Predict the structure.
Amino acid sequence: MRLSRYFMPVTRETPADAQVASHKLMLRAGLVRQTAAGIYAWLPLGLRVLKKIEAIVREEQDKAGAVELLMPTIQSADLWRQSKRYDAYGPEMLRLKDRHDREMLYGPTNEEMITALFRDAAKSYRDLPRTLYHIQWKFRDEVRPRFGVMRGREFLMKDAYSFDLDEDGARHSYNRMFIAYLRTFARMGLTAIPMQADTGPIGGDLSHEFIILASSGESDVFYHKAWEADRSAEAEGVDADDPAALQAFVGGLTADYAATDEKRDPAREAAAGADLRQSRGIEVGHIFYFGTKYSASMGFTVQAGDGTQVHPEMGSYGIGVSRLVGALIEARHDEAGIAWPESVAPFQVGLVNMRADDPACAGAADDLYRRLGQAGVETLYDDRDERGGAKFATMDLIGLPWQLILGPKGLGRGVVELKRRATGEREELSIESALARLAG
Ligand code: 5CA
């Protein structure tokens, strides 16, 4: 992409209404613009990151055996009356009326809708187990939308729902998602710590939040120091199809190392003593096992192997896809701007032509841009006629993993400069070696 033809409104000024680093940087780097309180337009650069995160989430859901579908954002109030949540949900639900005066709502979550959809199709134990998911916009009329996309009113969520015949099956489905979550966040360069959690309006009695550590986080967490190392590699070795092995792994992690919040379990602090650390954290995922809460209230039964009718055991599993964009920036930024991990970066390389007004430089940079494209390297090419200093500042702000700098002096010697954004390391190398390195 040529920057001269892109839409990336960056600003030098720090926005007055943003408190946390990620919100400031998302506005400054032109990733999003607020269009109403807690509602954001995703500008091209931000949309690319959102799509990358979504793709990782989707791949790991598919690997975990979940099946993708897409439910609408608008739901009917009657659906929510079946589960008795319509009145219980309160002012966070955005309620609407259509032209026929029918009560509708903008979905804050989809337990009711998926239960109704699956109920109408699944008749026997042979239709189970199933885990279904979608990646769809939600609306919650939060009292205090803040921190940009991290606590928005409209936000993108991956929500999955599992249906099993019995409790053991449901626990296995829960555990599969549990390790899928560790893998998902690890692929984004994040260590997400599972923390025992309250189930709130979703209901149920088993629940974990996945928390990444950040000083700007909304929750107070205590976590075992074992989580200071990246533990996701351990999840790689577990056979997700073996219920006993999986239960042993998840059970071990949660019993020995799971984080907790202060109000839930102060005793844990005393027990673990010096091994416990305290921090602030951002909740990037939340999983629930709630048994037959929805299948029973919504009249969903299947025929079991012995001929009896049973209510399927259910769980639901959320990931804050749009929240992750902010959370990732909280985890990866410095004074100059964002430093994206390669797996979610909007482009891999920022190609900077230092002298757009010099025909030799422009010719060489155009050629390099073309060859990077042929090699499949996602490149943002700063071909604008601007000062080098301003171009560097922009590249550092938007945080692409690599910067490739081409200027008249280097060109005379046949070299370009390659800079790694995260560390600031620079090296000079020939155009051929730079291409080989970035395409590799
Ligand atoms: N139905 C369940 C699981 S599918 C559910 O709704 N869970 S939740 O309420 O915990 O939300 C799932 C995830 O969505 C959270 O972990 C969080 O990462 C994200 N999320 C929740 N509220 C917001 C919000 N206001 N802004 C951005 N992300 C949010």
